[in-house]
Amino acid sequence: MLSFTPTRKLPVAISRFTLPFVAAAAVLGLAACGPSPEQMAQEKAQKELEEATRRLEAAGKQMEAAAIKGGAEAAAAAGEAMKALGAMAGAAAGAAGSGSFDPVDFRRLREALPAELPGFEKPESSGEKNSVFGISVSEATKRFRTADGARSVEIKVLDPGTMSGPFALAHSWLSIEVDKESADGYEKTSTSQGRRMHESWQKTAQRAEIRTVVGGRLLVEVETVGLPMAETRALLSRIDFGKLEAMKGEGKRS
User: Fold this and answer.
1) How far apart (Å, rounded) are the C-alpha atoms in residues 151 and 231?
2) Are 161 and 136 in contact (CB under 8 A)?
3) Distance (Å, whole) CA 56 – CA 80
4) I want to staple 120 with a disulfide (CB 3.0 to 4.6 A). Which of 64, 144, 152, 248 is the partner?
5) pLDDT at 181
6) Is 125 strand, coil or helix?
């Protein structure tokens, strides 16, 4: 995984979610798209993905060197890295066979999130769409708190838009069995309400997190503090997955 630190702030939806999935996509794409009769049509796209990955790695090294000098050189290096990331997104889309999408408006994504939760105050809602160097994503978030602040819930839905290719490759974590446990919690893949998901629990912090993917495209994340995992899972029933499923093919680019 690249270890460079961006020298200028990236949009939240891109920096928080996209970069880890792109890194995973680079690894999974190289491993999963080997030559076979079914994948012959993707060979060209796979080569482009490999080249785009090399470009991104080179851009990361340039950013590390430029960060020391700062100024215009650092900003230029950041721009080159983002361009390389955009190129990698397009190549990964071809390798995954998923294509690229214009992201769904975050206001519509937000409609699929709960308007209220029993025992919690009125939520804070936010949303954004970001387009940087050919990378375009959108996300919607709702945050809930109890009156005493002891418990909190954050529910997000992210449409990777033009990054759908890397997401399609990186989503293979849903098919990998994970079961880790320590004195302070656990991490595992599971199935709840018919959906494959990844969940983690931190006992000391009383923090739970669940992630799942809708329609092979939209990432849904639920994070809670002060709620047991069983109650965190129950929050999934408050999300309108049917509405999200209906959005999975929207905005497909030719």
Assistant:
1) 12
2) yes
3) 9
4) 144
5) 96
6) strand
